[in-house]
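R.M. (postdoc): so does anyone remember the format we settled on? I'll just put the structure tokens first.
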């Protein structure tokens, strides 16, 4: 069985690693020979680190990243409005990690090169994807020779980014969840470390909203919102950087981006499926763009492997049903934080100060600020939870607390379904092996489970829970 992954960005390469880990042959196609050289993402949360762990690259990622201290919201005068610290969370990794995207992409590509079941072919444009009932046919063109050829795959993942060809080919359109905004993104290198707070600083100011953060090593990132009528050349960049004590840094890259808040209205046609930026685009204020894409492929890889091994194709319907509401929820949260940061006028500034100093009044933002946990998946065939179930673990990720022996929980649980038993009888229709929690050597997990038993999916989402 061969899966073609269109796009060798971080989402496509992670997908390939996960699929190869499940015994599938994977061909990754990208129009460029090399990974995208410019830094884009700088933050990943600990849930996303679980995905990198499943792909076998979390330790290598940890070596090129550093834990993030938290998020500090400042007013236009530099006074702190609110601060949300980040530390070590429930997933066995720092709640937030800072990194440079090219470093992550190098780690991913190195891992890919070591997988005999995966082939990466650069310099190839995917032009056309046909999705009849059977195998998928692709038309590709070699960018060097101009020669076109037909390929056949058992399934195709469209991980081809914001301007996705695959999205167009399956007739999907992006739906706006908020207005687009122009931002200037500036990457900096400091000769000597700057005396700045080690977390992310967001300046909540209608005139010039801005973000500043240490990335990793000697690198820093500053971002400034641009007005619609403003040219980048007119900005006093040194003055803006000076507000963060970074005027003396070397600018290694400065680029204008238009941030969109969009989710595709269709994520699948037959065995052609969208993941990553091809399926959703978010403003970066909560650092979730790439994280969303990593979750897409983590939650899809096992389903696709099951379908290619004979399970009903209907399993693939859960891809959009589960992932789209989750993506919409986080994109809307990013839009909300953006509005709080950037709403205009004196009145808005007063409201903002009030809301941010008492951020608990914005429940979704407060919940996200207090922990790195993202919203649970909605109830469905693979998430057996009633709509009103406060405190239920179902739909969220199983925690990954330390084990007394060696190893990490996800690695010990393996690739399949697991029923973790804390004493409540495990229903006979639960798939997978039954594992008494006491056997895992994790008092923390045993405490979390109590006398419940939970059904854990191959992507470590809790699918069901029963009480004794
Ligand atoms: C300034 C900025 C800051 C960001 N900060 C964060 C952050 O802190 N945290 C976070 O989680 N996210 C952040 N993001 C978002 C993150 O960078 C993206 O979500 C991520 O790169 C998407 O990965 P992807 O693999 O889906 O797409 P991409 O990285 O865009 O990869 C798509 C690949 O598909 C290839 N391709 C496209 N079309 C074709 C075709 N027809 N044929 C062959 N190949 C094709 C392209 O060459 C490309 O290599 C940020 C983005 C920006 C711009």
């Amino acid at each position: 069985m061969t899966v073609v992954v269109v796009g060798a960005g971080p989402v496509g390469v992670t997908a390939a690693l996960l699929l190869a880990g499940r015994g599938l042959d994977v061909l990754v196609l990208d129009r460029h020979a090399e990974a995208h050289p410019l830094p884009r993402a700088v933050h990943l949360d600990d849930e996303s680190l679980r995905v990198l762990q499943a792909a076998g690259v979390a330790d290598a990622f940890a070596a090129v990243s550093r834990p993030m201290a938290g998020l500090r919201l400042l007013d236009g005068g530099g006074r702190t409005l609110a601060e949300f610290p980040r530390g070590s969370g429930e997933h066995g990794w720092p709640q937030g990690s800072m990194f440079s995207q090219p470093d992550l992409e190098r780690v991913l590509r190195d891992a890919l090169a070591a997988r005999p079941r995966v082939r990466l072919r650069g310099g190839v444009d995917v032009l056309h994807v046909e999705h009849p009932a059977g195998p998928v046919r692709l038309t590709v063109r070699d960018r060097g020779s101009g020669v076109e050829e037909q390929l056949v795959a058992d399934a195709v993942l469209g991980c081809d980014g914001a301007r996705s060809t695959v999205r167009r080919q399956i007739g999907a359109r992006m739906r706006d969840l908020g207005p687009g905004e122009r931002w200037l993104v500036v990457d900096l290198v400091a000769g000597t470390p700057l005396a700045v707070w080690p977390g992310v600083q967001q300046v909540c100011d209608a005139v010039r909203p801005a973000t500043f953060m240490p990335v990793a090593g000697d690198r820093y990132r500053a971002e400034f919102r641009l007005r619609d009528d403003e040219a980048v050349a007119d900005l006093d960049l040194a003055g803006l950087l000076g507000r963060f004590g970074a005027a003396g840094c070397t600018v290694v890259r400065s680029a204008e981006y238009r941030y969109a808040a969009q989710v595709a209205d269709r994520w699948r046609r037959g065995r052609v499926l969208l993941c990553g930026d091809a399926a959703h685009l978010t403003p970066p204020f909560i650092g979730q763009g790439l994280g969303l894409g990593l979750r897409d492929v983590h939650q899809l890889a096992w389903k696709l492997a099951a379908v290619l091994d004979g399970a009903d194709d209907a399993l693939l319907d859960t891809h959009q049903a589960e992932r789209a509401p989750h993506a919409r929820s986080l994109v809307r949260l990013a839009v909300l934080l953006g509005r709080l940061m950037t709403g205009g006028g004196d009145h808005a500034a007063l409201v903002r100060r009030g809301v941010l100093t008492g951020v608990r009044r914005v429940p979704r933002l407060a919940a996200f600020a207090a922990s790195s946990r993202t919203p649970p998946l909605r109830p469905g065939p693979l998430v057996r939870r009633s709509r009103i179930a406060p405190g239920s673990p179902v739909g969220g990720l199983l925690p990954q607390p330390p084990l007394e022996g060696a190893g990490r929980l996800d690695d010990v649980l393996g690739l399949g379904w697991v029923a973790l038993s804390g004493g409540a009888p495990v229903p006979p229709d639960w798939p997978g092996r039954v594992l008494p929690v006491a056997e895992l050597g994790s008092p923390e997990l045993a405490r979390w489970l109590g006398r419940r038993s939970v059904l854990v999916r191959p992507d470590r989402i809790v699918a069901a829970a029963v009480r004794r």
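R.M.: ...and that's the designed sequence above, right after the tokens. Also worth knowing: The first helix runs from residue 10 to 21. The mean pLDDT is 92.
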